[in-house]
Amino acid sequence: MRKLYLIVILLSLSLGALAQGKKRNGSFNTAKTNPNQFLQQQWWLGFKAGVNVAQADPSKRYSILTPTNYSSSVTDKQYDAFKELGLQTTIEITYYYKGFYFSVQPSYISSNFTYSNQLEWVNSTNISETLTQTYKQNQKIEYADLPFLIKYDITGSKLRPFVQVGVFYSILLNAVKTVNVSSLDVASGGTNTINSPPLIVGSKDLFSNYWGVIGGVGVSYQLGNVRLVLDATYRQSLSNIANPQNRFSNDRLSGIGDAQDDLNLKNIMVSAGVLFPMRYLSSSFKSNDR
């Protein structure tokens, strides 16, 4: 009988130990599986800043002056391509799910584009007597930008190149135009160069809100639980950035022969920043989506 009791006790202890072992293995597997499920999605919040260059393309041209004895194309404005630097700052809010990122990035964007044109007077009785005036104009425009982007990681390592596409809507904040006028006078008995003080004019009424598309590439680097980001984007407006109703409304600009063309705007933007994860597990797991 005592031997039977001893066998029962040993058997009970063995079954208890086996059950305990299964329980521990089960809890380990759960702890190992759940984080992977958790890390399939993540919220990121960050800040970026950078520089941009802009080009304005006229879709339809306008002028104050209408030539009668030569083509009006002679006085057309010549727009420079991606010449002047602008600035932008961005707050990024991004949701990650299984390799895809859905991102809103409200931004402040200040862009500059330049153009120039010439007007020439020639003495009809003595063609050697001329007066040539050159107008160089710098247009600064400021917008609050509301883009929506979809990004995709090409690889899943610490260094992650990505591609992104999206749309944006830009709300006009302010606009200022600076006009530099220089004259070459060969009509007053000699050759004289005259440089006038720059004319600075508020031109917000000449522009309007607009929308467009974005495409770009970038790379992020995982540094602990945060990400360092560098990206480059190309933006193309799909609507007129000018305000047609106020095309001739600025008397100071009309007085020097300037009328606002209908314009499409292109931007090349480069930004760098940092992103912080908003969902955490525990001290034993990193919060990045691995």
Strand tally is: 12
Our measurement of the CA-to-CA distance between the termini, rounded to an integer number of angstroms, reads 60 Å
Helix content: 10-25%
Mean pLDDT: 82
Q: Please report which band the strand proportion falls in: under 5%, 5-15%, 15-25%, 25-35%, 35-45% or over 45%.
A: over 45%
Gyration radius, in Å? 32 Å
**What summary fits the major beta sheet?**
12 strands, antiparallel
Which class do the helix and strand fractions yield? mainly beta
Order of helices and strands: HEEEEEEEEEEEHE
In oligomeric terms, what are we looking at?
single chain
Report the top-level CATH class of the domain at 42-66 and 80-114 and 139-174 and 208-277. Answer: Mainly Beta
**Which architecture name of the domain at 42-66 and 80-114 and 139-174 and 208-277 does CATH use?**
Beta Barrel
Per DSSP, the total helix count is 2
Low-confidence stretches: 1-33
Describe it for me?
The protein is mainly beta and 290 residues long. 14% of the residues lie in helices and 56% in strands. The protein contains two helices and twelve strands, in the order αβββββββββββαβ. Strands 1, 2, 3, 4, 5, 6, 7, 8, 9, 10, 11 and 12 form a twelve-stranded antiparallel sheet that branches. It is elongated, with a radius of gyration of 32 Å. The model is unreliable at 1-33 (pLDDT under 50).
